[in-house]
Amino acid sequence: MSDSTTHAFVTYRRLTADDLPAAQRLSASIGWSHRREDWGFSAHTGIGFVAETAGTLVGTVVCWKFGADQATLGMLVVAPEHRRVGIGRTLLTHALDELGKRDVTLYATEAAQPLCDALGFEACGALDQMQGAAFRAPLVALAANERLRPLGASDAGQLVALASRASGLDRSHVLPPLLELADGIALDRDGELLGFSLFRRFGRGFLIGPVVAGASPDAVHAKALIRHWLALNEGALVRIDVPHGHGLRTWLTGLGLARADTVVRMRRIASARPIAEPGLADGSLRQFAVITQSLA
């Protein structure tokens, strides 16, 4: 394929660990804050593709398989000087070919929506990226028999089950390596694990996610799981990505977190299954914050 801007030949291949420094520099060039370690987690848990011209990495995409019928896409980056010549479309096509007949979910920026529309994706929700460093975290009261406690090694299986039910995606592949990178807190009621949230370094600061909890009046369980990390990290830059529909944006704004961006959730359906609302895959559980936008 010839790039009409540089007249250089563009090649496409799998992403490797050796590409991570260049991938991180590429994403930083468009204003993303991802560290090399953040890229490393994506490469370790997903399957990536890159575009190169004259030995320079000019585009990336990563996809994740969740069981035999579900997948997500993300980390789509094309160098500004190489846009509008089909590199993004070709990268997405490579990823979609890899995913086969799976239903595919992604979060698209306004600029990426036309391309996603052209490839058969349909909008089915939205997500707000909230962040801040000067926030207040008043106490969230739980019931007398409910408590927050640190995660234990024996919780891993239950966490995978809860995260899978809440997201509608099989989390058995991505959650264990995520637990190695993150701190976690569990919501417990008389010994029963009701929900959890994770907190880890990400970009220029820290990220809360996923946040998984059952439906409760005024989302009090989710708020307690989020508030825990905010109270421990006042003054640190903290980000949380929350799907629309749970009523958390107003609450988070009141705590001092501002909306930095909004992206559209889109899906391409390969089966006859209906499109589920984001974070509502299980009737009794909610995913109040995602792992990352790429992992949905």
Automatic annotation (TrEMBL):
In Pfam terms, one family for this protein is Acetyltransf_18
Q: What is this protein called?
A: GNAT family N-acetyltransferase
Instruction: Please give the Gene Ontology molecular function terms for this protein.
Output: acyltransferase activity, transferring groups other than amino-acyl groups
**What InterPro entries does UniProt report for this protein, alphabetically?**
Acyl/Acetyltrans_Enzymes (IPR052729), Acyl_CoA_acyltransferase (IPR016181), GNAT_dom (IPR000182), YitH/HolE_GNAT (IPR041496)
Q: Which PROSITE patterns match?
A: GNAT
Q: Which organism is it from?
A: Paraburkholderia sprentiae WSM5005
- Please list the residue ranges annotated as the N-acetyltransferase domain: 10-142
Q: Give the Enzyme Commission number.
A: 2.3.1.-
Q: Which key words are in the record?
A: Acyltransferase, Plasmid, Transferase
Q: Does the keyword Acyltransferase apply?
A: yes
